[in-house]
Specification:
By secondary structure, the protein is an alpha/beta fold. The protein has three domains: 206 residues, 3-Layer(bba) Sandwich (FAD/NAD(P)-binding domain), CATH 3.50.50; 110 residues, FAD/NAD(P)-binding domain (3-Layer(bba) Sandwich); 119 residues, FAD/NAD-linked reductase, C-terminal dimerisation domain (Enolase-like, domain 1), CATH 3.30.390. Helix content is 30%, strand content 25%. It has twelve helices and 22 strands. The strands form five sheets. It has a seven-stranded antiparallel β-sheet with strand order 16-17-20-19-18-21-22, with helices on both faces. A hairpin with a 4-residue loop joins strand 4 and strand 5. Helix 1 packs parallel to helix 8. The chain starts with a strand and ends with a strand. The structure holds NADPH dihydro-nicotinamide-adenine-dinucleotide phosphate. The site of NADPH dihydro-nicotinamide-adenine-dinucleotide phosphate has 24 residues, from helix 6 and strand 16.
């Protein structure tokens, strides 16, 4: 007889949802977590990042307000106030997570888990001592951790984890990477008054997104004052205790007091004792699971960032829902990875649902592309460089809208709504028949009449 029906290792977004749902099915559940409850998203990811984005937007808003008649004097910014207010809010959320688990009836075990077999877990308790627990099923949801390439001086650099607790802000920063975290933190630092250089090894930021929008984002970041270096890489970091310069492959030295590596996150599978089980890892350390989230060890399942599908909080939560329904419910809560919307909280925001144009053209050989670009109304009196870019992709053979991409203010809010229409299979005729909300940027989605580019049989036809 095992101690529990289910042991969940990791109290992040996926693990907590799974534990609560399993407890709701009357199962005896333990959740093991060594760090603060809530995982990456709550503690060093989505939530504090968004708070920092809000903070960094004020500098532009102060400037914009002048055209509307406001005079705000000489604004000044105090980093410790933001950092500590943010930390207080995160601690409040940690408490909510504890209460959610307590109220569900799950046992929270504070410590670090190591698998000792298909049904056994050893826990090094946070307050000292050891516990051995057993369960019919074990769910691994330990997430990921920042990956940093080995460059000379890498120990002087920080990852996004440390960005939330910096003692002080530097005057100059170098951000390495061209993905979500790099562009988000480049915008945050720039908005908070840090002279920021973004160094990316490839030709287009946000390579996995629509390339046209990635290129436009580069223009916008540059116009906002970020020094964007494409096709470039940091080969060494100089300094003692603190960085003083980042050296590029070209030999150029970029003086800086902070180097942030945002070069991807890898599955947190090391040290979990997986070798005591039949579970299989990929070369990048992520866990192989089947369509039912089972590892090669049938009693052990895994969800979230550690299975390296889409490293997104809402995806981990949906995986948890599908898994627990399958284990203890009706088994009807299937989860499809198609048409998952996502947003990058760069400044301006970039949000998307469906395939990028460069991908869609292979998926839909008869593709109509609608693109519109305009100055946001706020800028008419407020000034500023930003443009809004919207792109709709339509499968001309069926008239179905297959993707929407947006760069500009409120892109995330806008695309979330469009994702429902696209998931529901809306046609371009549905979009055309929808009445716009005026004046809004979003009304453009339903007034796009002129095809910008046509692909026929996969070839550009105009
Ligand atoms: P990403 O995978 O988005 O980007 C990693 C970047 O680092 C890429 O530009 C990549 O280049 C570059 N890179 C990788 N290895 C090296 C290297 N050795 N040297 C130089 N550059 C390198 O990862 P992030 O770290 O930005 O974020 C991790 C994950 O967290 C994301 O994938 C996302 O799923 C999630 N996340 C989601 C957010 C959201 O929903 N808003 C916000 C933040 C994170 P290349 O493109 O050439 O491979």
């Amino acid at each position: 007889m095992n101690d529990y029906d289910l042991i969940v290792v990791g109290a992040g977004s996926g693990g907590v949802r799974a534990a609560r749902l399993a407890a709701g099915h009357g199962k005896k559940v333990a959740v093991i977590e060594g760090r603060a409850l809530g995982g990456t998203c709550v503690n060093v990811g989505c939530v504090p990042k968004k708070l920092f984005v809000y903070a960094s937007q004020f500098s532009e808003q102060f400037a914009t307000s002048a055209g509307y008649g406001w005079s705000v004097g000489q604004p000044s910014f105090d980093w410790p106030t933001l950092r500590d207010n943010k930390t207080a809010e995160i601690e409040r959320l940690n408490g909510i997570y504890q209460r959610l688990l307590d109220n569900a009836g799950a046992d929270v075990v504070r410590g670090w888990a190591t698998l000792a077999g298909p049904h056994q877990v050893n826990v090094a308790l946070a307050d000292g001592g050891q516990r051995q627990l057993s369960a019919d099923k074990i769910l691994l949801a330990t997430g990921g951790q920042p990956f940093m390439p080995a460059v000379p001086g890498a120990e002087l650099a920080v990852s996004s984890d440390q960005m939330f607790y910096l003692e002080q802000l530097p005057e100059r920063a170098v951000v390495v990477g061209g993905g979500y975290i790099a562009v988000e933190f480049a915008g945050i630092l720039n908005g908070l008054g840090v002279a920021t250089t973004l160094v990316y090894r490839g030709p287009t930021l946000l390579k996995a997104f629509d390339h046209e929008l990635g290129e436009r984002l580069t223009d916008e970041l540059t116009a906002a004052g970020i020094d964007v270096r494409l096709n470039s890489d940091v080969v060494a970091i100089h300094g003692s205790g603190q960085p003083t310069a980042a050296e590029l492959a070209s030999g150029e030295q970029l003086p800086c007091g902070l180097v942030l590596y945002a070069t991807g996150r890898r599955a947190a599978t090391a040290g979990l004792g997986l070798e005591q089980t039949g579970a299989v890892l990929r070369d990048n350390g992520s866990l192989v699971v089947d369509e039912r989230f089972a590892t090669a060890e049938p009693s052990i399942h895994a969800i979230g960032d550690m299975i390296d599908r889409l490293q997104l909080t809402p995806v981990a939560i949906r995986e948890a829902v599908a898994l627990i329904d399958q284990l203890y419910g009706s088994g009807s809560a299937a989860f499809s990875y198609a048409d998952i919307p996502t947003a990058v909280f760069s400044q301006p925001e970039l949000a998307t649902v469906g395939s990028a144009e460069q991908v869609a053209v292979a998926e839909y050989p008869q593709l109509d592309v609608y693109v519109t670009e305009f100055k946001p109304m706020l800028a008419t009196l407020g000034g500023g460089h930003g443009k809004i870019v919207m792109k709709l992709l339509v499968d001309a053979s069926s008239d179905r809208v297959v993707a929407a991409h947006m760069l500009g203010e409120h892109a995330a809010e806008t695309i979330q709504g469009l994702a429902i229409a696209i998931k529901a299979g809306a046609s371009k005729a549905h979009f055309d028949a929808t009445v716009g909300i005026h004046p809004s940027a979003a009304e453009e989605w339903v007034t796009l009449r002129q095809v910008t580019r046509r692909y026929r049989d996969g070839v550009l036809a105009n």
